Amino acid sequence: MRNYIFRRSLTLVGIMVGILVITFFLTRVLPSSPVEMMLGAKPTAEQIAIAKQELGLDKPLWHQFVSYISQAATGDFGKSLRTGQEVKSEIIKHMMATIELVTIAIGISLCTGIPLGVWAAIRNKTPVDQMARGVSIVGIAIPSFFLAILLQMLFYGVLNWFPLQGRIDSHILIDAQFTAVTGLFTVDTLLAGDWVAFKSAVQHLALPVLTLSLATFAIFVRTTRNLMVEVLSQDYIRTGHAFGLSHSKIYFFYALKATLVPLLTVIGLTYGFMLGNSVIVESIFDWPGIGRYVVESVITNDFPAVMGVTLILSSSYLLVNFIIDLLYFTVDPRLSPEV
């Protein structure tokens, strides 16, 4: 197992280096210049020379790359050209907002989608199965931006149950009595015992979480249902019924366990994908997440921010899938490299 982890770690490092090389050189060949971002319109030649020296753009390209790699290895991504703040601190703030949103959405989808997928497989080719498949098709077919707008119109415009946008009420954020320990507002407000702020954080989470949950819920329903239908036709499942084992034990212990390896793959890929691709939902709900941050950075050619976000998102995606690979061995020991 140690050899496997070591080999996988080397592979991950190699992939990260490749991503950094590609992203670094692509940001340097874009037609727009970061100097224009700093100085605005019609800068003088002297201002341009000073700005290039400050950014290190007056040095050879290979020297810029080596310098960036050495700084990135220590967690220093430089300062954002757009905001003037440290890229590292901005990434952490925006990344934690996205992690909170995506993790809760995935958790709700798993807790609802997997049981419904199992139920649909048990009731294969019945109205229950057709209903579950219909719900999953609708969830996948409805665009996220359209669903988000509908939810805003219903729950804010008509019912006035949840706030329209933002992460927490502005007056609470200004007069916050909770300390940002983890960057997850729901956790930090609970740790501080600030129930007013906790309620506000949950209310602001409701609509974006519901929007993200529907699409992932549909994926988990269809995946679980299709995998369970195949497993339930196996001989050992029929043998379990013949020996009089309880239905719940057969379905949720033996049958569902047999689907966990491919199901874990779908979960890992979905979670990693959503970390960097929830930008539409974040934009509609004015959620200060990493997806929205990187889009704004790309538009303004803020290459220190783009490089920092690329490294963090790539690392997160690779780390999630590496953890999923290790979970395979726990679910099915036969897959262990030592067997």
TrEMBL record:
Q: Where are the transmembrane segments?
A: 12-30, 101-122, 134-159, 201-221, 251-274, 305-329
Q: Main site of residence?
A: membrane
What Pfam families has UniProt attached to this entry?
Answer: BPD_transp_1 (PF00528), BPD_transp_1_N (PF19300)
Annotated Gene Ontology cellular component terms: plasma membrane
Query: Which keywords are on file for this protein?
Result: Cell membrane, Membrane, Transmembrane, Transmembrane helix, Transport
One GO molecular function term of this record is: dipeptide transmembrane transporter activity
Mind telling me which PROSITE patterns this protein's record contains? ABC_TM1
Q: Which membrane topology describes this protein?
A: Multi-pass membrane protein
Q: Which residues does the UniProt record annotate as the domain ABC transmembrane type-1?
A: 95-328
List where in the cell it is found.
Cell membrane
The record's family statement is: Belongs to the binding-protein-dependent transport system permease family. OppBC subfamily.
Q: What is this protein called?
A: Dipeptide transport system permease protein DppB
